[in-house]
Amino acid sequence: MSTSAVFRTLTLSQYRILPPCQCRVDVLKPNHAFVRYASAGPARRTGDEKIPYRIVRVVNSETGKLDPPTRLSDILASVDLKALRVELVTEDPEPVVKIVDRRDSYEKWKEQKKAFRKGVKAGEQKEIQVTWGVDAGDLKHKIMKARAELEKGCRVEIVIAPKRGQKLPKPNEMVARANEISSSLQDIAKEWRTRDVQKTITTMSFQRVPT
């Protein structure tokens, strides 16, 4: 054996070669829709240029439905950012934004913080009952009531049930009605458990996003 080979063997023998690390490293996906500030209380939605997406969909203020995918830069350029704010309301399954009054958005957040400080318990559950034959005006009122409870941090159960004397809708019409209610709350809440679908009654459970 050559002198260099002996030297290399002696040198390597001084060190212990450790096996590769078998540790599991979990990478958490950040939720960009809300920004948590240092003070305790509800998080405020991410807004304007801080939204980390190039392409988003806007909640149409007139129809409540989603507009086609649009570049965020085009949206920001088209609105008066001194008076209005573009807020990221959800990221799943795609980034969705809403254009809101800047002052109203801030005041609403302040009210949420105030309610939080008063000790509103997240997870408190409220029940709202809706009939299958509910008219558009009454349904809008029920949705607004659900939103108010969700903004306080409460979970909300919406129970859709038949009313005596009203014709019971077909199964596919029941599904459509439940989906309509869920879609109207998608910017603020999600169904946190599987719908309880009985023959004539459907129960949906909502909680604020994020929880």
Features:
five-stranded mixed beta sheet; 211 residues; four-stranded mixed beta sheet; alpha+beta; single chain
Layout of secondary structure:
Blueprint lengths: L2 H10 L21 E2 L8 E2 L9 E4 L11 E2 H7 L5 E7 L5 E6 H16 L7 E7 L4 H16 L3 E7 L9 H14 L4 E3 L4 E2 L4 E7 L3
Structural notes for this entry:
This protein is an alpha+beta fold and 211 residues long. Helix content is 30%, strand content 23%. The chain has five helices and eleven strands, in the order H-E-E-E-E-H-E-E-H-E-H-E-H-E-E-E. Strands 7, 8, 9, 10 and 11 form a five-stranded mixed β-sheet that branches. The protein has a four-stranded mixed β-sheet with strand order 4-3-6-5. The protein has a two-stranded antiparallel sheet with strand order 1-2. Strand 10 (196-197) and strand 11 (202-208) form a beta hairpin. It is globular. The termini are far apart. The model is unreliable at 5-40 (pLDDT under 50).
Report a brief summary of the structure.
This protein has helices at 3-12, 72-78, 102-117, 136-151, 171-184, and strands at 34-35, 44-45, 55-58, 70-71, 84-90, 96-101, 125-131, 155-161, 189-191, 196-197, 202-208. It is of the alpha+beta class.
Listing every helix as H and every strand as E from the N terminus to the C terminus, the arrangement reads HEEEEHEEHEHEHEEE
Alpha plus pi helix count: 5
DSSP strand tally: 11
Give the biggest sheet.
Answer: 5 strands, mixed
Helix content: 25-40%
* Approximate strand percentage: 15-25%
Categorize the overall geometry. globular
Rounded to an integer, what's the Rg over CA atoms? 26 Å
Q: Supply the helix-strand structural class.
A: alpha+beta
